[in-house]
Predict the structure.
Amino acid sequence: MDRVKTGITGLDEMLGGGFLRETANLIEGAPGTGKTTLGMQFIYNGIIQENEPGLIITFEEFPKQYYHDAAAFGWNFQELEKKGLLKVVMTSPEVSRLDVESVGGMIEGYVDQMGARRVVIDSMSHFSRLTQDPVELRSLEFNFINALKRERLTCLLTRESPVLLGEAYDDSSIGFVVDSYLILRYVEIESAIRKALLVLKMRGSDHAKDIRQYDITAQGFEVQSKFEGQEGILSGNPRRMAASFVEAFVKR
Ligand SMILES: Nc1ncnc2c1ncn2[C@@H]1O[C@H](COP(=O)(O)OP(=O)(O)O)[C@@H](O)[C@H]1O
Ligand SMILES: [Mg+2]
């Protein structure tokens, strides 16, 4: 199967080698969990490591903010834009929706001109202001995502989760529309806040089922080890497993 590598070591391994090509992949997490960083890294690594030009469509931050944030990780986005390998576009869900529905729209234009293969939408949460009706929202999201896939793009979509800690994914909407669903969570362990990652689903592929730790470092997103001896991670409030239970499995 054709895999689209994120270039993030531990993450590609969890995904069985990477995202499937021309699929829509949702990253959900609270503010500051690293969704934008993950998206920028997916695009940057695509250009540098796989020679796949990329688009970043943002509904919330100005392109300047992305250049600035990317530079902090050592990624020179302005240079990549000058070379025609990257385009950061600030727009609105209204405009984007109409754009993908029309032939010869902006996104189609970038795909043709640059040969864009990857796109990040940061974030899908803004679509919710287009309608109050959940059924209509799902259909808007579905049409938008399918239009991107028709352009043969591999899509990384971010989505703001409303709570800081705890279980909060809402499987009534966009989770059904996407091909894979990754959850980023803050977890409180021994009075410290750490970050946890889970691949909730991945259509048509095997994937890691366990919960891993990750961090945002000066190099970007880094997936680390499993959480050992902890349960209740997704509740945001893990408990140490009974010591005897752990001892039964850990040889001294
Ligand atoms: N250069 C950097 N080095 C280390 N950590 C960083 C750097 N830049 C941002 N971060 C961390 O990443 C987090 C923000 O990630 P971001 O991708 O903007 O989150 P989100 O899009 O989910 O709100 C911040 O909380 C910050 O701690
Ligand atoms: Mg963000």
